[in-house]
Specification:
The complex is a heterodimer.
Chain A: H1 5-14, H2 30-40, E1 46-56, E2 59-69, E3 75-81, E4 88-92, E5 95-100, E6 105-109, H3 125-129, H4 134-137, E7 138-148, E8 151-160, E9 169-175, E10 181-187, E11 193-200, E12 203-205, E13 208-210, E14 213-218, E15 225-235, H5 246-249
Chain B: H1 2-13, E1 24-38, E2 47-61, E3 65-78, E4 88-101, E5 107-116, E6 148-159, E7 162-169, E8 179-187, E9 193-203, E10 208-218, E11 220-228, E12 236-249, E13 254-266, E14 271-281, E15 286-297, E16 301-314, E17 317-327, E18 337-347
Classes of the chains: A mainly beta, B mainly beta.
């Protein structure tokens, strides 16, 4: 159903808006690239409408959803079409609140339950609530430059600082001109590849880059993938803080 | 009054003050089909049972107005060979919610109709549902306790994490006497103390009921509640719930494992109840579970053990099975001995 919806949010969580751009780095190094990537995707708040198509051995399902995020990283996701229509998910700090429209009731998830699969997807709730400070979670190195689908990229490797991280190793190919991710490969501790995330069709609005298409390919489950297509993206729209409340969640 | 609130809310919000909600009218339908067999030949429930319950739900929402109507037509019978009882229509939901500019720049929400309501917390035994006639237990532990009352309620956020609710319940449905309720909530948002609630309800027959509930996170998600109906000095009920969701990680998969334990100490009824269970997501489609419950007093004891499972066959269609062995519960809650059930749920 809402399979791998988290991929989209994971990406948002990975590149928080609070990062400060390191001005005038003397040379291209890993630190410079991360800061430049943060800056390229930085916004005060965002309202996104998107469609997700999930495919596995049994066929395809689709859903649409709206996502709102404020400057603190609080996120509200509303499923607007599909089998889970009406379901809402609110992220506030380290807590996830799920709203079930049929029961008109809110359920809280916290602590280690955040490691569980996010609505049956391959991503965990922790992916959404992970520490916004990427530097705290991973150490990273610049491996060099590579061409990927005709795009010149910096290739970086991220290694988890804690065993509790879901993805112990991440390889990321970052567009060397726009400083946006093009491809991320997520791997287990032993180095087994788990998922590929492919970013494309970037929207460029007011100096902000945002992927218009996001494809997640499950490398463990054969034939399983998800494609998210952004139909509308608005940035710095001045979202009301009350939007990110349990009262709004239950509306 | 509903029409007045409807017009008022539309006037207030029609200018698009809150731009994030588009108007939406949706229809949802489905059916639950269950077949079961009770082996206890001394029970009035002995034998085969079947039921089919198609339902239809119509929902509307906008920034100012939300409405939900759901009706179910249930056909059930005993013994597959006999003809089923005439069908029964039940109204599950019929409510409007209106939103207005409220105090302190916050939105005030008014709900009127037959609406799901929960002032309680807890995974199995819920503390704080003082609006209900009897203590509520969530027999679908792990999901939610769905229960509806006829009511008019008002919710007003007060800022700084405070919220206040007022409710009036007319003598309709399961409410036998008009009742008034008030609920004060404080959302702490802290690592350990998540929320505290204080609830009070007064019925026109002179009875009243109060509860204080704390929602904590201490490795487990914990709910602690104290309730009283003030009928005597021993009229105190203490509820404690603990729930934890684990994730069993393999190299390539993570499987959710949920464990819960709940207990209820009722000093007035001199009774102690306990429930516990575990559910395990084998994969994306199959979840299996096992549960146990017991109820003990000086004069009696009852216990039950159950297993169950649910499998999503395709999106919108799931099959389930359940088995229960119970002893000592009064009919028709849980018949003595073995009971089995299979079900099919379709949603569209």
């Amino acid at each position: 159903m809402m399979k791998r919806l988290a991929a989209f949010l994971l990406m948002i969580g990975m590149f928080p808006m609070s990062s400060l751009f390191a001005v005038a780095a003397p040379s291209i190094d890993a630190r410079y690239i991360i800061d430049a990537m943060d800056a390229a995707m930085e916004y005060d708040d965002a309202a996104i409408e998107a469609k997700m198509v999930n495919t596995d051995r049994l066929g395809s399902t689709s859903l649409t959803f709206d996502t709102f995020q404020n400057g603190s990283g609080d996120t509200l996701l509303v499923v607007t079409a599909g089998p889970d229509k009406g379901q809402k998910i609110l992220r506030l700090d380290d807590d996830i609140y799920l709203y079930y429209p049929d029961a008109d009731e809110i359920v809280r998830l916290s602590g280690s339950s955040l490691k569980n699969s996010f609505l049956g997807s391959d991503f965990s709730y922790e992916d959404l609530t992970g520490d916004d400070d990427y530097d705290e979670r991973y150490s990273y190195t610049l491996d060099g430059e590579e061409m990927l689908d005709g795009i010149s990229c910096y290739k970086m490797t991220f290694t988890a600082k804690k065993l509790s991280e879901t993805y112990q190793v991440q390889e990321m190919w970052i567009d060397s001109e726009r400083f946006v991710p093009i491809h991320v490969r997520l791997s287990s501790k032993s180095g087994r590849s788990l998922k590929d995330i492919l970013y494309s069709d970037y929207i460029h609005d007011g100096g902000i880059f945002f992927p218009g298409r996001l494809e997640v390919v499950n490398l463990v489950k054969k034939g399983s993938s998800s494609v998210m297509t952004v139909s509308s993206a608005r940035f710095n729209v001045g979202l009301d803080d009350d939007l990110f409340s349990k009262e709004e969640l239950a509306w | 009054m509903v029409m007045f609130l409807l017009l008022l809310s539309l006037l207030v919000f029609d200018s698009g003050t809150v731009p994030v909600h588009a108007s939406d009218l949706s229809f949802k339908g489905g059916a639950d089909m269950v077949g079961s067999y009770v082996f206890d030949d001394s029970s009035p429930l002995h034998g085969a049972h079947y039921s089919a319950a198609p339902y239809l739900q119509v929902s509307y929402s906008s920034s100012a107005l939300k409405a939900d109507f759901r009706g179910t037509y249930t056909i059930q019978g005993v013994d597959a060979a006999s003809s089923g009882d005439p069908g029964v229509f039940s109204l599950d939901k019929a409510y409007f919610k209106f939103r207005f500019p409220g105090l302190l720049g916050k939105r005030l929400t008014v709900t009127a109709g037959l609406a799901p309501i929960s002032w309680g917390l807890g995974y199995y035994y819920r503390a704080g549902d003082v609006l209900f006639e009897d203590p509520i237990t969530n027999t679908d532990a792990g999901t939610y306790a769905e229960r509806q009352l006829w009511l008019v309620s008002i919710n007003q956020p007060l800022g700084a994490g405070f919220n206040i609710d007022f409710a009036f319940l007319p003598a309709l449905g399961e409410t036998t006497d008009e009742k008034f309720g008030i609920l004060l909530r404080k959302d702490f948002g802290a690592t350990t103390l998540k929320e505290m609630k204080a609830a009070y309800a007064y019925a026109l027959d002179g009875t009243h009921k109060a509860a204080i509930v704390a929602d904590l996170f201490l490795y487990f998600d914990i709910t602690l509640g104290v309730e009283s109906s003030f009928s005597s000095s021993s009229d105190v009920r203490i509820v404690a719930n603990a729930m934890k969701q684990f994730s069993l990680e393999s190299e390539t998969h993570s499987c959710p494992l949920t464990v819960f334990a709940s207990s209820q100490l009722d000093f007035f009824a001199a009774c102690y109840s306990v429930a516990g269970g575990v559910s395990f997501g084998v994969n994306d489609r199959l979840t299996v579970s096992a549960n146990g419950l017991g109820r003990f007093s000086d004069s009696s004891e009852a216990w039950g053990l159950g297993v169950g499972g649910e499998m999503v066959l395709v999106d919108g269609v799931s099959a389930s099975f359940a088995g229960l062995y119970a002893d000592g519960f009064p009919d028709p809650i849980y018949p003595d001995g073995l009971s089995l059930a299979v079900g099919l749920t379709v949603a569209f």
